[in-house]
Amino acid sequence: MPPFLSKNALKASFITVSSNRCGCATVAALLTLKIVMTDAEYMRLALELASQAQAAGEVPVGAVVVKDGEIVGRGFNAPISRHDPSAHAEMMALRDAAQRLGNYRLAGCELFVTIEPCLMCAGAIMHARIARVVFGANDPKTGACGSVLNAFAERRLNHHTEVGGGLLAEECGLMLSNFFAMRRAEQKNV
């Protein structure tokens, strides 16, 4: 394997045969590479987006939407800068994915987010038909995946999303707790 490829790279080769006007066959080999990332790698990208939110003065939460191994949506918290209470990282990533895919239904997609989704985001995730949600840190104040309530466990709803939590939880939680500690220190100095 070439040194620039990770151990997660997959290689697929295709040979195509075509003929020109003279009837002579030409053979062309086409090599395609698809990089398959792990859940932890997707979460690290969500953490990078969370850093962008923090740099913009927002609560550091980031999210990515993945379909068939490809990132199709990205988002980070922006309710303050956008003057929009719905501009959570999950919502921004869902909007980005829907625009990119040309459909508000995101069937077969997965969402990776640095903190447990709230009830608003859980509703949007269900309406978008996200297949799987993976979150980092639990949210003991507004988490809707089991911490406060579990919207995804409600069997009377018509769509059921697989949910997993705790991926890179320490890293995700530390980013949030450091942010809020810094905010409290700033308020004391005012």
SSE layout and pairings?
Elements: E1 9-19, E2 25-35, H1 39-55, E3 62-67, E4 70-76, H2 79-82, H3 89-101, E5 109-115, H4 119-127, E6 132-137, E7 162-165, H5 169-188
Parallel strand pairs: 5-6, 6-7
Antiparallel strand pairs: 1-2, 3-4, 3-5
Describe the structure.
With 190 residues, the chain is α/β, with parallel strands linked by helices. Helices cover 33% and strands 27% of the residues. It has five helices and seven strands. The strands form two sheets. The protein has a five-stranded mixed beta sheet with strand order 4-3-5-6-7. A two-stranded antiparallel sheet has the order 1-2. It is globular. Mean pLDDT is 88; it is low at 1-15.
Give the key terms.
single chain, alpha/beta, globular
Please summarize what this structure is.
With 190 residues, the protein is α/β, with parallel strands linked by helices. The chain is built from five helices and seven strands, in the order E-E-H-E-E-H-H-E-H-E-E-H.
- Structural category: alpha/beta
Number of strands: 7
Oligomer: single chain
Number of helices in the DSSP assignment: 5
